[in-house]
Structures are given as C-alpha cells and as structure tokens.
Write a structure and sequence with these properties.
alpha/beta; nine-stranded mixed sheet; binds adenosine-5'-diphosphate; binds alpha-D-glucopyranose; 20% strand; Rossmann fold; single chain
C-alpha cells in the first residue's frame, strides 16, 4: 500500500523543528505494517545538492503560472518526490521566511503549489507512481485534502489524512488571495477555507480530510477548547469523531546515547557516570565554571509558545537556587537580546548559544542533568523524549504531549520507582522556580537522581506503538 506524505520539512534534508524529525521517521515507522511512504517536499535551493540528480516524473508548463517539475529522489532510506519550481523555492533564507525573518510574501502560492501537486499525483499525473492514501502535514500541506476533493475522480476517491503538529500555525491569508488558489468558489465558505473573511489553509484541510490526527492524546482534547484551539476549536469539535491523538515517537537510530556519534562519550543506563565527559564538554563550549551543582539546559525555539519570556525572568533565581544553565536556541529578538545580557551578568553560570546547531543539541542531552521545557502549549514535544532517552531529566509544564510523556517525581511516583521527571502546572515565574527547587535537592541525592534517569531511559517512546496506530488509521481508510 502506497502512502504519499506531504510536508514542508523532512530530516535530514531540511529542519526547523520537530515536524522534520517526525516526517523523516514516519516512513520506517509504518513500513513494518505494509505501508511504503514516499514524501513530497518542495525542492528548496538549500537542499538541491543533497537531493542529487533524480529522475523526472512530471513536467508542468503551468503550475500557478510557472514552470515546475516533479522529480523522484532517493536520500538514504527515504523515497522523495521533490517539487522543483525554482521561482518559488530556490532563494536564500528559510523554508518560510526570508533572510531578515519576514514571511515570504508569496507563501500562499508556494504551499498551494505543493498541495496542488499532491492532489495531481493522487489523480495520476505521474505515470509510474500512484498513491493509495495522501497524508498531509500541517498548514503547508493541508490544502492537499481540499484540492483532492475537487480533483479528478481518482483524486476524489483517494483518502486523505491531515496531521496537525501545531494548531497555532494556520496558514492564514487575506480573503482576496482566494482567487489565486484555483479552487471552486464553493470552497470559500465556512465549511471550507473561509475564516472570518480571510482564508486558512489549515481550516480547509481540517474540513475536508477523511481523518485528522494530532501528535498527542492530551493535545487532541485540548484543541477542542478555546484556550488551545486558537479559533479552530469549532471546526475541530465538528470533526471530533474523525480526530485521533497519536504520540510522536523518536528515531532510535538518530537519538541513542549508546551509538550517537555527535556526542563526546557514549554511555548507557548502567554507565551514567560517563555522562560527565559530555558535561565537561558542555562546560567548555558554554563557558560554564566547573561546580558540583546541576546543569539545566534549554533546547528550543525562543518564543512565547515555549514560555521563553517567563523562563528568562526566572533565570536569575534558577541560577541563584544553585544551578548552572546552558541555552541553545533562536527566535524572537527581544528574548535573544535579554538572554545575551543575562549571560554577561551571570558569566560562568549561564551560557548561551544563539542559533541552530544539531550537534550541540545532542551534546546537551548527553551531558546536561536536566532539560527545562516551560511551554504554554506543546502538541507533543520531542526534546523531553530525547531527554528521557539520554538521562537528561525533563522539567516540564503539564500540557499536551509533555503531560502525556513525563511522570512527575511526586512521593507516590518515587515510592513506586516510576518517576521520570518534574511537572508544573502554570507557566509562571513561581511555578518554574518551584519545579527547579524540587529538582535540585533530588539531584544531590545521587541514588534517587539515577533512579529517575534510569526510569526515563527505560521508557519506550520508540515509533513502534505510534507506527501501529497510524497503520490502523490507514487501514480503516482503505477498507
Ligand atoms: P517544535 O517543533 O515546536 O520546535 P519539538 O520539541 O517538537 O518542538 O522539536 C524541536 C526539535 O528541534 C528538536 O529536534 C530539537 O532538538 C530541535 N531544536 C530546537 N531548537 C534547536 C536549536 N537551536 N538547535 C538545534 N536543534 C534545535
Ligand atoms: C510541532 C509542535 C511540537 C511537536 C512537533 C512534531 O512543532 O510544536 O510539539 O513535537 O510539531 O510533531
């Protein structure tokens, strides 16, 4: 059975966040269940070299007025179809923003084109490849489900799945843009892409997909409420029966302290002592003074979603409570600037690296004692899962996937020896600080801390269970 996965990112080709990791891992997660995944992505300029030569599947003379082609590529184990449209995708900057961080002004066309291509493929435009199901990820691919509804008979008959990785990003554009999408006017309605006079790609996908998934059970319930639904709660409620929460897994080939070649020293749950070599390396890179206290790390987009504004207010007291902190992240300028100032003020105790660095993210998980994740909402979150696997104890807000994956070190959990981290309720200065102040004394109780680390390392968040759940959904759709 053939699945066409449609996404704007895939690891290891292009990554700005967890979406890429998940899209990159999904093919091997569902493969054991009889599903062969090919992933359709835009051929961004930055990935052309990694894509290699490829073979042509289809040439468009006019895809939204431009010439484009669909090419098949093999990248490691991944089967890729790339939409080569130099005018849309070959530019300096990121997948969504220019070099100054502003959204590309033609994002509507850039991702409508990706979705239109997905629908065309479902309709049989490529002679040698015809998928049985189309699986679209996030707003950038959501319109696939809409184009398919209005495509040829074959496309209309092909089931579609939409996975919402983050409902806060909705692909909203001015209603005046509707004309360029080349969709029938009946789609510009409340049960289509229309959204308070504007258009939303994500909403269109939610309305038209045969099945909807999101990346944790708790988040699938949260988005039914206005506090988390970000205006989409009504349409999610209308489609509740078709909506499923499936936790993300982690890719053991990439995230495994026993084999990871991006870290200083490999280790396993019985040689936790070896983590110290990684810790020493972190101290060197982040200019942290040697001390007997824990290092807590942050690996995150520096944004409101991730609670980074509150975190940095609490940072001086987190450090004063007896810890050192290493931050790896990039994001909003005011947060970056404040962190830089704090790093000067707390030199030796706070180290920051502003930017994106895959290797450093592995080292931090392998050597820091805990990872702080004070997210206001978190559809799933991957860094706490990597933390568990690496014995880097997660200290997290109790929301979304963070609520589903971490067992708080309360007395009962410690007694039963099942605790894997620390949770707190509200993302406030006091709550973050209280959680850190619960963790620090336990860190100094070496036996108990190792117990928490080992429980986390034992926890199974591999793709096995989640792959099975996606496979069940696929099967239900092709019956
Ligand atoms: P989100 O996708 O919302 O940003 P996730 O926790 O799902 O959050 O995934 C984030 C991914 O991006 C993880 O793989 C994490 O290690 C990585 N990451 C985030 N910030 C950085 C950074 N500055 N450098 C390297 N990796 C990062
Ligand atoms: C989004 C979410 C994150 C999730 C990731 C992968 O970026 O913010 O919580 O882990 O997608 O599904």
């Amino acid at each position: 059975m053939k699945i066409l996965s449609v996404a704007s990112e895939i690891f290891p080709l292009i990554k700005t966040g967890g979406l890429a990791d998940v899209v990159g891992a999904m093919p091997s997660a569902v493969h054991p269940h009889g599903f062969a995944v090919t992933t359709l992505i835009p051929a961004y300029g930055a990935i052309l070299e990694k894509l290699g030569k490829g073979t042509i599947l289809h040439q468009y003379d006019d895809l939204f007025g431009i010439s484009a082609r669909l090419m098949r590529h093999k990248v490691g184990e991944l089967d890729i179809i790339a939409l080569h449209a130099p005018f849309l995708y070959e530019r300096d900057g990121g997948p969504y923003v220019d070099t100054l961080g502003n959204d590309w002004r033609d994002n509507a066309v850039r991702f409508a084109a990706l979705s239109k291509a997905a629908s065309d493929i479902a309709g049989g435009i490529c002679k040698s490849y015809l998928p049985d199901i189309v699986h679209a990820h996030d707003w950038q691919a959501a319109l696939s489900c809409v184009y398919m509804k209005f495509g040829n008979e074959r496309a209309q008959k092909t089931p579609s799945v939409l996975t919402i990785h983050n409902i806060a990003f909705q692909g909203k554009f001015s209603g005046e843009m509707f004309g360029i999408l080349q969709l029938p006017s009946e789609v510009y309605r409340m049960d289509g892409v229309e959204y308070y006079g504007d258009i939303s790609f994500l909403k269109g996908g939610i309305a038209k997909a045969h099945a909807i998934t999101t990346v944790s059970p708790t988040y699938s319930r949260e988005i039914l409420q206005s506090e988390f639904g970000m205006g989409m709660e009504g349409i999610i409620q209308a489609r509740e029966a078709q909506t499923h929460g499936i936790l993300n897994g982690i890719d053991d080939d990439i995230w495994n302290p026993e084999t990871d070649d991006l870290i200083e020293k490999n280790y396993h749950s019985k040689s936790l002592i070896d983590r110290k070599f990684n810790k020493r390396k972190i101290e060197a890179i982040f200019n942290l003074k040697r001390a007997a206290n824990p290092i807590f790390c942050v690996i995150s987009r520096l944004t409101w979603q991730k609670g980074m504004d509150v975190f940095m207010e609490a940072l001086p007291d987190i450090i004063n409570s007896g810890s050192r902190v290493a931050v790896l992240g990039a994001g909003e300028a005011y947060i970056e600037d404040r962190l830089k100032n704090l790093a000067r003020e707390f030199s030796g105790k706070l180290g920051i690296y502003i930017g994106y660095d895959e290797k450093l993210s592995h080292l931090l998980q392998a050597g820091a004692d805990g990872i702080l994740i004070p997210s206001r909402f978190e559809p799933c979150g991957l860094t706490q899962l990597y933390g568990l696997k690496y014995g880097c104890v997660p200290i997290v807000a109790r929301t979304g996937g963070l609520a589903d994956t971490i067992i708080d070190a309360n007395e009962a959990a410690m007694e039963a020896n099942v605790a894997t981290g620390f949770q707190f309720n509200k993302v406030t200065y006091h709550e973050i600080l209280r959680a850190v102040n619960r963790a620090i004394p336990l860190y100094h109780d070496k036996r108990k801390w190792a117990q928490i680390q080992r429980n986390g390392m034992k926890a199974d968040f591999s793709w096995k269970k989640s792959g099975e759940k996606y496979a069940e959904i696929y099967k239900s759709l092709v019956k």
